[in-house]
Amino acid sequence: MNTIVVLLDTLNRHLLPTYGGDWVKTPNIERLAEKSVVFDQHWSGSLPCMPARRDLLTGRTAFLEKGWGGIEPFDETLPNALRKGGIFSHIVTDHYHYFATGGENYCQSFTTWDFHRGQEDDPWHSTVSDPEVPDEHYGRVRLQYERNRKRFVQEEDYAGPRTMQAACDWLESNREADHYFLMVEAFDPHEPFDCPKHYLDLYQDDYKGPLYFWPNYGDVDVPEEAITHIRKRYAANLTMIDHWLGKLLDTMDRLALWEDTLLIFTTDHGFLLGEHQKMGKNQMHVFNELAHIPMMIHVPGSEHNGSRISALTQNIDVKPTILDYMNVAIPDQVKGHSLRGLLEGRVDKVRNAAIYGYHGMAVNVTDGSYTYMRAPRAADNHPCFTYTAMPTTFRSYLGNQVQESIETGRFLPYTRFPVFKVPVSRQGEPYASNSQIMETKLYDISQDYQQQHAIQDAELEARMIRLLRESMHEANAPLEQFERLGL
């Protein structure tokens, strides 16, 4: 058995035809779905990018103890577990956050890794003089990306296509090998939504306004015609990477890899494109567009390929599933569940709930029919701490503003490794300027999937609180997390 994981960043489930979308063109994702079991109730865990990847590689939901940051010295990653089982692992990626401060030790746990430069603010193309930028634009225009994109002359030059082609080349060069793990990770369709014009032309884009391909996060700050344009730009970016995914599927056809290869296709989270009058992620509640994510699994020789599974699953279940199929012991630290029983039709459920969220914000739980967003009980969000042995975060370091308040000790119950306990909130000081994320919300997503109308139901809320408490205990949530949520 070989295993391939294909992860496209920021992939919106609700736009895919496989999940009911009716206007975005993704023929190769549909092609893959026909060969796979499609999961209808798959959910994220920790958001955004790096926290989601830590969940995937460790099989633990980590956002209750830490936000953005590197793999910890006590983390047992998927590639490390595979190595102990004698299995070679390789990652092909253009996700540049792996190689910035706060992204340490992810790729380095693989046997080998291959990084393709140029996405977003990757400090790649070097020119001392600043590139020209348009005088009028919406959203973000960043100088480093303006440098990088000058090197995208042909479609083959873009980082996403290069990543997919490199994965094809790796499979070709290792065509005689077996019992390996390959992770193929494309940053697309993550913003900036930039691709050759012929993909945008597929969507009859007639926008005439200021340049707009990189939205700001938060409340919608552009006119309606710009929202329509940015949605088409997202779609165009997705269609481009779908085209190059097709080349990977062609390679699997040519090498007859479907016969002995487990293939898992998924994402880290979605992206708001004007829904809820919001753009992006991070600065609002984790609505379904962000947390309810696609997953498809091709199991070689399975009679169930082409079917759908409605059981509740989440991202931490990917690691134990891979280890189960590759006959490698699942580490004790893993909190996810192998999905092999579901895939083989032997069980009909592996979990009662999925919890998900950003560190220090609401903690969210779903049972597949309802979503409950439990916000902090007070405006100061106190007490809240980050626990880490590696105090790096998004392009920076943790704790610089609270150095005198940092403690060290053996605070995590699943490891004896000492960690820093870094204060995130200050008692009596407002935590967030956005009051909306400090409101608890309950939605019936079986009737109101778009989460437009929060409901009041004391009995139902009590049941969801019980689910939330049970799930937080199962995840080894620090005790102060219960206190800050008023639980």
Notable features of this structure?
487 residues, alpha/beta, 8-stranded mixed beta sheet, 4-stranded antiparallel beta sheet, 12 helices, 25% helix, globular, metal-binding, Sulfatase-like hydrolase/transferase, Alkaline_phosphatase_core_sf, hydrolase, Sulfatase_N
Explain what this protein looks like in three dimensions:
It comes from Paenibacillus anseongense. Keywords: Hydrolase, Metal-binding. An eight-stranded mixed sheet has the order 4-3-5-1-7-10-2-11, sandwiched between helices. The chain has a four-stranded antiparallel sheet with strand order 12-13-14-20, covered by helices on one side. The protein has a three-stranded antiparallel sheet with strand order 6-9-8. Helix 1 (27-34) packs across helix 7 (224-254) and helix 5 (159-173) runs parallel beside helix 7. The chain has 487 residues and is of the alpha/beta class. It contains twelve helices and 20 strands. Strand 16 (392-393) and strand 17 (396-397) form a beta hairpin. The protein has helices at residues 27-34, 49-58, 78-84, 143-149, 159-173, 197-201, 224-254, 288-291, 318-325, 340-343, 458-474, 479-484, and strands at residues 2-8, 37-43, 88-93, 112-115, 180-186, 218-219, 261-266, 272-273, 278-280, 295-298, 308-314, 354-357, 363-366, 370-374, 385-388, 392-393, 396-397, 407-409, 419-423, 441-444. The N and C termini lie far apart (45 Å).
